[in-house]
Amino acid sequence: MFLVPMGRIVTLQDPPLESPLMRRLLQLVATLAIVATSAVDSAVPSPHGPQPRPLYRLPLSTRPSTHHSWRCSPGARRPGAAPIQLVQGREDTQPQQSTAEGSHAVALADDELYAHLRLSNLQNYQYYADISLGTPPQTFSVLLDTGSSDAWVPAESCSACRFHARFNASASSTFRLLGDPFEGVYGSGDAYGNLASDRLQLGGFVIPSFAFALIRNETGDIPTFVPDGVVGLAFRGMSQTQRTPLLDALVASHPHMDAVFAFHLVKTTGDDDRPSELQSELHLGGFDLSCAGRAPRIAFFPVVPLPGNAELTYWTLPLANVAVLGPKDRRDLLPRRLCDPECFAIVDSGSSLIYAPAQDFADVIAAITRGLSCDVASLVCWNLTLADLPTLSLSFGRGPRNVFELRPEVYADCEDGACAINILNHGDLGDDLFWWVLGDSFLQEFYTVFDIARRRVGVTCDTASDRCRL
């Protein structure tokens, strides 16, 4: 087991960031500094099992939808997008194209089955949500993380948590102390506490008794993180507590709910650091193909255990091939086939960027920067534009089709002739980290569906564009 690599750690003391390129440069510096102090510890398995991811996002503001037709926000939808209603996950695993007439539409008369949550976006790599715990409810901002499985918030008795909302157990009539110890070990600090249970509300969903850790001490940089806590959305196999994760608990409390959620993350442009008015969303209980564009199509891929694991932990997909396609002739610039026999990619909403596996990172960066004026150590290039950079191509599954392309603007930020490459080395966090990690920069490009019941991930694409071949 291993820790998914860390993205940028945001604290209450962070200064304003001045430009997209400067944001990425500061992000790279912060990440590398953390790596230098945490790589060895993160590579060592904990005796308590897999560790959750560190926190580095700002809160998702959540509000249940009041609409009776659940569709992607007009402000976030591409011009000309077909008016497709929410569709549930299907049993077949072939790529699917949906139309307004042919989609598997779902009526939203029963508000207990679906939630349409608005997400606030800050700087394109920070999204966070409010949940409530207890009776009467107490509100906390949390990272919704597909790279971990446990949930925790600070306890009122936590003196180190003074910058965070703290849970007052004595004020809740439905609180129950379970007592089991919890230890969250992170690259930038630790969180210690005990397990408890209480009423949880997320949007319009209520779980009468949800197990979470009540943190009584935070160390390192965690006391100055912006979000109060974390709620994991991965599988039970990586949980330290071995308690029921959020999505399983939701389905247990709402048996007719489809165990599906999806992230629609909108990427904004410009230097404004204020939260964007464009609508990013978390969909619970189904998914909405209209978020994928004018000619939406979805391909489902089975979630598989990582090598050496007997059960599912992360949202891990097999990769048939990775290519770096030249900007002019689209010739593969890599010197060898990377996925021989195969690679694995973890889809992680708790990471801001993309990470390449240790054994492939040098070849990938060499191919991206070939013929350009670049400092490979800092991942910064000069005297170029986005048009001079190649395209990163990912083929999911175990066949030649299902290709999704990440254009330069997805993995690089350019300004005034300088470009920062936002693909980092997974191996910097430990010797046994050999997987691709697809963070928010991937989720911003492709509306992605997570299907718990059917153990699969659906990646969508607008087939009217040149970003995919399905």
From TrEMBL:
<dbReference type="InterPro" id="IPR021109">
    <property type="entry name" value="Peptidase_aspartic_dom_sf"/>
</dbReference>
<protein>
    <recommendedName>
        <fullName>Peptidase A1 domain-containing protein</fullName>
    </recommendedName>
</protein>
<feature type="active site">
    <location>
        <position position="145"/>
    </location>
</feature>
<dbReference type="InterPro" id="IPR033121">
    <property type="entry name" value="PEPTIDASE_A1"/>
</dbReference>
<feature type="domain" description="Peptidase A1">
    <location>
        <begin position="127"/>
        <end position="460"/>
    </location>
</feature>
<feature type="disulfide bond">
    <location>
        <begin position="381"/>
        <end position="419"/>
    </location>
</feature>
<dbReference type="GO" id="GO:0004190">
    <property type="term" value="F:aspartic-type endopeptidase activity"/>
</dbReference>
<dbReference type="Pfam" id="PF00026">
    <property type="entry name" value="Asp"/>
</dbReference>
<dbReference type="GO" id="GO:0006508">
    <property type="term" value="P:proteolysis"/>
</dbReference>
<feature type="active site">
    <location>
        <position position="348"/>
    </location>
</feature>
<keyword id="KW-0645">Protease</keyword>
<keyword id="KW-0378">Hydrolase</keyword>
<dbReference type="InterPro" id="IPR001461">
    <property type="entry name" value="Aspartic_peptidase_A1"/>
</dbReference>
<keyword id="KW-0064">Aspartyl protease</keyword>
<dbReference type="InterPro" id="IPR034164">
    <property type="entry name" value="Pepsin-like_dom"/>
</dbReference>
<keyword id="KW-1015">Disulfide bond</keyword>
<feature type="region of interest" description="Disordered">
    <location>
        <begin position="41"/>
        <end position="79"/>
    </location>
</feature>
<comment type="similarity">
    <text>Belongs to the peptidase A1 family.</text>
</comment>
